Amino acid sequence: MPENPVQNVSFPSNGSTAHGYLAVPESGSGPGVIVIQEWWGLTTHIEDVANRLAAEGFVALAPDLYGGATTHDSEEAGELMQKLPVEQAAKDLAGAVDFLLGHEAVTSATVGVVGFCMGGGFVITMAAQLGDKVSAAVPFYGIVQGEPDLSGITAVVEGHFGTDDQMIPMDALAALEKKITDSSGTAPTFHVYEAGHAFFNDENLMGTYDADLAQLAWNRTLATLKANVR
Predict the structure, then answer these.
(1) Domain ranges across the chain
(2) What CATH class does 6-228 carry?
(3) Which residues form the Dienelactone hydrolase domain (predicted)?
């Protein structure tokens, strides 16, 4: 077992230094996966996702996009998200990918990316921006905003969304599916569950967590990561 299976790390990004939470499997090595936070910040829920991935044999890195700030207040979370420069976040995430691919514990030539809510949108953007560096992109209840260029996506894209998610209407999801397909030439797989927003988050205060559906989505996510991140 490695001496430091879980640790806070720093890495160069966009001419500065970014930070994150790194979880390494007991074997000491494995394929790399990036975990991207919800608008609440790098919470214990996101750390738990990284730990669960490490337990499945992955080296998981959760970048801290808010510089240490976390909240469980939706108004404050909205303010933190609004203050987050999208370009800066994208560059920090690109730095995280390079850090992970260069880490001695990572055995894969590509990374998988899993993100939630705000982070789900970043998953799709990262897959487009980083091309062949990302081989599996798994957004949970998050879509892209605006009209980004998605032609660079080469990854397998598998999304998880709730039918009762008022933040993501089903017509918006259909439009995203069409845009990814038309832009990249590869159709994503979007799983839709009879659930609300953040149904995977067992710490959410919205009362939408669904243990059975969360487990189903998790099993699908693991299968996609294990099949494609090498």
Answers:
(1) 6-228
(2) alpha beta
(3) 20-227
pLDDT in tens for each of the 230 residues of the chain?
344 566 889 888 777 788 899 999 999 999 999 999 997 788 899 999 999 999 999 999 999 888 767 767 777 867 877 777 666 677 778 999 999 999 999 999 999 999 999 999 999 999 999 999 999 999 999 988 778 899 999 999 999 999 999 999 999 999 999 999 999 999 999 999 999 999 999 998 889 999 999 999 999 999 999 999 99
Mapping DSSP onto H, E and C, the string for 162-216 reads ECCCCCCCHHHHHHHHHHHHHHHCCCCEEEEECCCCCCCCCCCCCCCCCHHHHHH
Q: Which two tokens stand for residue 118?
A: 């705000």
Q: Which amino acid is at 196?
A: G
31: left (phi over 0), alpha (psi -120 to 50) or beta: beta
Beta bridge pairs of residue 21: 8, 62
**Distance (Å, rounded) from C-alpha 186 to C-alpha 180?**
7
Whether pTM exceeds 0.90? yes
Distances (CA, A) of 65 to 38, 119, 215, 222: 10, 10, 26, 24
Which residues 6+ apart lie within 8 Å of 207 measured at CB?
A: none
Q: Kindly list the distances between the CA atom of residue 211 and the CA atoms of 18, 103, 166, 203, in Å, as whole numbers in the listed order.
A: 33, 33, 20, 11
